[in-house]
Amino acid sequence: MAHLGGRDGNMGNDRVGTGSGRGTAPTFSRRRALRGLAGTALAGAAGLSARHAGASYAAPDEFAAKAVYLNPTMDDGYDLDRLLGLIDRTELNALVIDVKEEGVYVDTGVDLFLEAGTVFPYYDVAAVLDALHAHDVYAIARLVVFKDTPLAEARPDLAVADAATGGPWRDMNGVAWVNPFSEEIWAANIGLAVELVGLGFDEIQFDYVRFPTDGDLEAMDFGREVTESVRVETIAGFLGAARTNLAAGGAKVGADVFGFTLLLDDIGIGQNVGRIADVVDYVCPMVYPSHFPNGSIAVDGHPNDFPYETIAISLGAGAEKVAGAMGKLRPWLQDFSLPGMSDYGAAEVRAQINAAEANGAAGWMIWNAASVYHEDAFAPAG
Q1: Which of 181, 280, 287, 365 could be cross-linked to 67 through a Cys-Cys bond (beta carbons 3.0 to 4.6 Å apart)?
Q2: Residue 382 or 40, more confident
């Protein structure tokens, strides 16, 4: 999945579980509430800062996803029941689960993935969704798009090519990427997303929806000229096409972006926050404080030691890039520690949550690659 609990960090800064329902029908359905808010800007807007007084926020009773991440590829199983228990006991109301990263993790009828041999089912989607919806949990499918080594190796004609070797280009970690300009790649990933919405996912969240960031970038061959504007419009084009195709199913579309994209307009990967906000329901910046380099933002030390301030500064910058649509920003926050940095526990996780909520975010999501979380960071269920 990712290194040490973080994934796709801020560039330069950047086995089925089952369970019964709650026992009684909920008087307020989080999923039904969000379904009824199509086209509305969403936010958890308590404690707005004066800086954002003019922004467009949702009313306090509107749905804001409060999610944790579930890794379905863990060796000991992904233990859905454990996380459903955590959600039942706390303010949590949503769960993000992988459907595609190192291959497709669920059954699919998409020909490209089947013919390439990149389908490796880890769980029964229907059973997982039944369990989530029985607990009134908003279900988010995380779908990795252009970082796709299995497909790039099986179909080198669809890969970003290495100008020197003619084979698939690889980043510094040896990962091969598929070509963001490929209509066949677009169609396959959107087709998978449409299938998942038909099965009952409430939201599709596209990750690694960008151009590569590291390795010998000069050796990349996309088969055409690539400029900043081309990169930006390519990524926005894919996301816009996905949203158009998913709209009929009533699902939301999210896009994971580098945290540093809130601070800079272009970092060479095609992720322009303002442009992406035009074509998705949620922009999901990975604003993990541990991933910001020392001195990259105005705090008195390493950003890892300032969880509240790092999130507040990032969302403040993001508000200026998505003027009038602050309710589209839903950040990824960290519940993991990196070597050589201060450990993160419940207090540090809560500080990030408080900053997100105080600065108008449309909810928040917590990342830990092993799907283990500090329960004390979350308010008890009301």
Answers
A1: 365
A2: 382
Domain with residues 30-377, CATH architecture: Alpha-Beta Barrel (3.20)
The pLDDT of residue 325: 79
Examine the pLDDT at 57 and tell me if it is beyond 80. no
pLDDT the model gives residue 188: 98
pLDDT of 266:
75
Measured CA to CA, the distance from residue 299 to residue 310 in angstroms comes to 8
- Hey, where are the domains in the chain? 30-377
pTM of the model: 0.86
